[in-house]
Each structure stands twice: as C-alpha cells, then as structure tokens.
Amino acid sequence: MICEYDALPGIGHACGHNVIAAAGLGAGLAAASMAAELGGRVRILGTPAEEGGGGKVFMLREGAFEGLDAAMMIHPADHNLPTLTTLAVHCLKVHYTGVASHAAAAPHLGRNALDAAVLGYMNVAALRQHIRSDERVHGVFLNAGEAPNIVPMAASAHWFVRAATTQQLEELKARVVDCLAAGALAAGCVMDIEWLDPAYSEMSDNDRLLSRYQENAELLGRPFADPEVVGYVMGSTDMGNVSQVLPTIHPLIAVAPEGVSIHTPEFAAFACSDAGDGAVIDGATALAATVIDCWLDPL
C-alpha cells in the first residue's frame, strides 16, 4: 500500500498527498486485520519525494518492492476515474559557458552565454510545432548574468521532457538536446547537459486490479467518469516506474468540484476539507476491499 506524503512548496497539500497517505495507511491497517485469516500479507510503504526526486525509483532499486504481488494507491482529483494518462519524463539542466567582456567597450571579445540559452529556448519553441500531441517540453531560465554591461559568461536552464512512452521519450530527448546545442554553437559557447536522476516511466495499470477497485468504490456511492471523455492528463509520477515491474493501480478519487485543478491553492483547501476526509475513508475502504478480493481470488 503506497503512502505518498510530500507537500508542495508554498501551497501545501495542493496535490492531496495528505489524502493519499491517510487512505493508504487506513487501507493497509484494515487489510492487515484480515491477513492472517486469509493467508495474505500487507506492506505499507511511505514513499517520499514524488513531486521531484523519484523516491519510489530509488526504493525499487533498493528492494523495497521485492516479494510483492501488487502495489496500490489512490490520488485525489476533481473526478473519480479508474485510470489516467501519465507521461514518462526526464528532467535536465543545461549549462552554457561563454566569455565575459565589457558589453560596450569590447563586445567583440565576449561570447554571450545568455544568447546561447535564449537561442536554445527558441529552438525548442520551434520544435514544439513538430512533436506529437502527447509530448511536452517546457523549461525556465535559472540564471542569465548579473549586469547588463557585462557579457554573460554563464547561463543555465531547467527543462522537463515528457512523452507517452519511455521509447518516445528517448527519441524526443535527442531532438531537444540538438536544439539546445544549436544555441551554443550559434553563440560560440560551450554547453554541458546534466540529466537529473531518476527518469519517471509512464503508468501501466493492471486492468483486473482496476476493475476490482472500481466495483468496490462504486459500492460506496462513487460514480466514475469515462477517462476518454474527461481526457485527464496528470503529468508524470514515479508510480509509473513501479507499474513497469508489478501489477499496479493509481485511480483518482474526487475531493474537489469538476474544474478545480491539482497544484492550486483552491485544490489544497479541498484536500484539507471534509471532502478530503471523505475521500480518505472511501479510498481506504475501496483499497482494503480490493486487497481482500485479491487474496480470495489472486490475480
């Protein structure tokens, strides 16, 4: 049973990880009370750093998921959905090094690292016209010089590259690097790419496990929306890496009205409201019932 718990800087539990942790813990304890009778076993895992840092990926590498038959969690949203679209993602920092010089007295002696970063950004902006509809590339500048009369010697940017599958991601990463490198070439600067470990994989939900969860949640009075109609995309999650190695589910549970997006102050308020408490109880109950279903009728 997965218990995410990290909050977001500045806006608290705007991704509802407080609900995830409480529901996962409740489900684990409820199922554990039946484990001996049904011949099962429950492992409750607190998983840090989902919002950046890939805690589950490192836990996978260290064996935290070994010996398990399935991994489950719920995630707060503005709909009840059995599944959602997530994208594989790899983050990078690009560092440009140029040559400092006086911008008025000797501009010809300088090599502008900010120009390299800006040109790289513009190249990626042009690339976006020619990538698939399920691919995303977005970035921000981290530093770009200190004074206008000094040709910037250093500049850097932070980029996210996302795609529907890990294979697509690798192909897109190569194109993004070419765009960034072209900026360095045009400005006469040196580029250094720093890929940030770990990459997140796309989600691969287990259909049988999902159907059991949905049946249990519907018995609690939670109607489910059609994922194809809602078209819900939730960025990326390190739960995707878990789903590549064992049966996994990551259904959404409604805590906010339709249209209230995660990662906003409004969503944080709902996650910490009575609606959030209700999602904890329903989520824990549905997850625990799903575990028991699996013990009675293994996948």
UniProtKB/TrEMBL annotation:
<feature type="domain" description="Peptidase M20 dimerisation">
    <location>
        <begin position="93"/>
        <end position="183"/>
    </location>
</feature>
<protein>
    <submittedName>
        <fullName>Unannotated protein</fullName>
    </submittedName>
</protein>
<dbReference type="GO" id="GO:0071713">
    <property type="term" value="F:para-aminobenzoyl-glutamate hydrolase activity"/>
</dbReference>
<dbReference type="Pfam" id="PF01546">
    <property type="entry name" value="Peptidase_M20"/>
</dbReference>
<dbReference type="InterPro" id="IPR002933">
    <property type="entry name" value="Peptidase_M20"/>
</dbReference>
<dbReference type="GO" id="GO:0005737">
    <property type="term" value="C:cytoplasm"/>
</dbReference>
<dbReference type="InterPro" id="IPR017439">
    <property type="entry name" value="Amidohydrolase"/>
</dbReference>
<dbReference type="InterPro" id="IPR011650">
    <property type="entry name" value="Peptidase_M20_dimer"/>
</dbReference>
<dbReference type="GO" id="GO:0016805">
    <property type="term" value="F:dipeptidase activity"/>
</dbReference>
<dbReference type="InterPro" id="IPR036264">
    <property type="entry name" value="Bact_exopeptidase_dim_dom"/>
</dbReference>
<dbReference type="GO" id="GO:0046657">
    <property type="term" value="P:folic acid catabolic process"/>
</dbReference>
<dbReference type="InterPro" id="IPR052030">
    <property type="entry name" value="Peptidase_M20/M20A_hydrolases"/>
</dbReference>
<dbReference type="Pfam" id="PF07687">
    <property type="entry name" value="M20_dimer"/>
</dbReference>
